[in-house]
Amino acid sequence: MRDVCVVGLGLIGGSVLRAAAAAGRVTWGATASQADAVAARADGFDVVGVDAALERARAQDALVVVAVPLPAVEDVLRALPEGVRLTDVVSVKGPVADLVARVAPHARYVGGHPMAGTSASGWAAGDAALFRGAAWVVAADDGADPDVFADVTALALATGAHVVPASAAEHDAAVARVSHLPHVLAAVLASVGADGGPLALSLAAGSFGDGTRVAGSRPELVRAMCEGNRGALLDAVDDALGRLGAARGSLASTGALAKTIEAGHAARLALRDRPEPTTATTVDLTSPDALEVLRDLGARGGRVVALDGTTAHARTS
Amino acid sequence: MRDVCVVGLGLIGGSVLRAAAAAGRVTWGATASQADAVAARADGFDVVGVDAALERARAQDALVVVAVPLPAVEDVLRALPEGVRLTDVVSVKGPVADLVARVAPHARYVGGHPMAGTSASGWAAGDAALFRGAAWVVAADDGADPDVFADVTALALATGAHVVPASAAEHDAAVARVSHLPHVLAAVLASVGADGGPLALSLAAGSFGDGTRVAGSRPELVRAMCEGNRGALLDAVDDALGRLGAARGSLASTGALAKTIEAGHAARLALRDRPEPTTATTVDLTSPDALEVLRDLGARGGRVVALDGTTAHARTS
């Protein structure tokens, strides 16, 4: 079991450190936040300076998990010793991969993104069980180091997550649609509602409450997440603008919203009724087409649920 | 206590009939649905034919509550005897008022809209407690009959709701923003997400689930509700298109979403933190400016919470 070094001990990093330790790994962490460092040490975790943590990772051939916000990633990369095993938990994958290629091309990097979180933040909000049952995307781009791909997959599985393999671009396009666009639309809806004044707010019920809920998240975190995925989010916003504009045109011209409402209903049912991935399959991580097979599996809604040496056990629907 | 005649015994009409009976009113109902009629009779309610129900309402000077979907309202109005006290529970008020003025100008009509409901429908889904704690908009347009305004207010209060007075146009503009636009945006978001394929749906978590929840409602009900409020909904959709277009422009040009996200966050906090209406005031329903005072009260987020003869007891923040 490979040692784990986590840099950044907020909600996600703190949860990774706890979950890895709970799974029996040797772990240590580092953070620029004095408050998080004090709190993590008080909880019995080994917290050292960033440079010391990274040097120890090199010496132990550990897996380094970068768990700082996107704007702080570059500084961590600059401090990275040559050739370490590296992953991250940032919510966007293309921009981090570009940064690694530019700043730390020597790193053995395979990106990751656990799809878990709460509106809370900081070490105190962390939880060893945060990732249980969650999807953890592991980047399966051509050229990824199969050995590190296995390291990241093993860590994700050890926390109770299942692994969804995808290219960085596929990941970014998907989360733009199902994670970042929802935040933009919630903000827009909240503002349009508030423009209706006290009367509108006094009549707001379930649909407005549901549709605006994530607008209550911390704006600086939402901004960092959405702005970090600019290219893919622009595509998703354009898709939404096109569909909303078509609804507007249809309502204005014929008075009908049939196409909009029925397509939305069918899509919601598709989400609710999506097939459970129950068909077992295996992927040999040492085979030359392993990454392609894994990406194809993820694109069809499949997941890796166990790792046995270099054999990934997967489920597809 | 005035007798209550409910025409249409689905979720809302059936709940009004039950709640009025539970409050001690003499009640009877009518419905075009044989299934609802059988079920309501089996539950001990007095259900007769539509013509007989309306004739009895005239003879007893009862309040008639039209609780059929908007497309079926005109037929009920055509069957209405001269001069009956009339309200409705349709989710849009301007179009119903126009219809009454055209088809049954003799009716003593004051529109209403209880802001309650579930995704279920039919008599069996009804509940005498459905309106407890809910807002019930009562139309306070100039020229409204103060006597019937008091009848509708008394019925709404008897069901456990509080009354929000507003003009038909103010109501329609408000619900377009906080009730109909959320359905349109949920449909758009669900479709954009589904366009991402199985990978996107396998990564969908809380924000996508919240943002698309009401897209699971029955499409024919959502269409009837949204299409019935065409004019006001177009304004709300245009507001959303403008804000979403501005977000797109800002993201494309500067990469920033600060304005969108921060405005949405402030609006969501305004919803969460809106002041409880705790300042007591009274409105004399017989005074010449009563309707104007009531509309102003509703526009400021106030509500009527009790009725004592012709004195309305209200709360404002």
Can you describe what's shown?
2 copies of one chain form a homodimer. Chain A has 317 residues and is α/β, with parallel strands linked by helices. Chain A folds into 2 domains: 4-166 and 278-316, Rossmann fold (3-Layer(aba) Sandwich), CATH 3.40.50; 172-272, 6-phosphogluconate dehydrogenase C-terminal fold (Orthogonal Bundle). The first copy, chain A, is built from 13 helices and 11 strands. The first copy, chain A, has helices spanning 11-22, 34-42, 50-60, 70-78, 94-103, 146-158, 168-194, 197-203, 206-212, 219-228, 230-253, 258-272, 290-299, and strands at 4-7, 27-30, 63-66, 85-88, 108-109, 112-114, 135-139, 162-166, 279-284, 303-308, 311-316. In chain A, the strands form 3 sheets. In chain A, strands 2-1-3-4-5 form a 5-stranded parallel beta sheet, with helices on both faces. In chain A, helix 4 (70-78) packs parallel to helix 5 (94-103). The mean pLDDT of chain A is 96. At the A-B interface, helix 7, helix 8, helix 9, helix 10 and helix 11 of A face helix 7, helix 8, helix 9, helix 10 and helix 11 of B. Chains A, B: Belongs to the prephenate/arogenate dehydrogenase family.
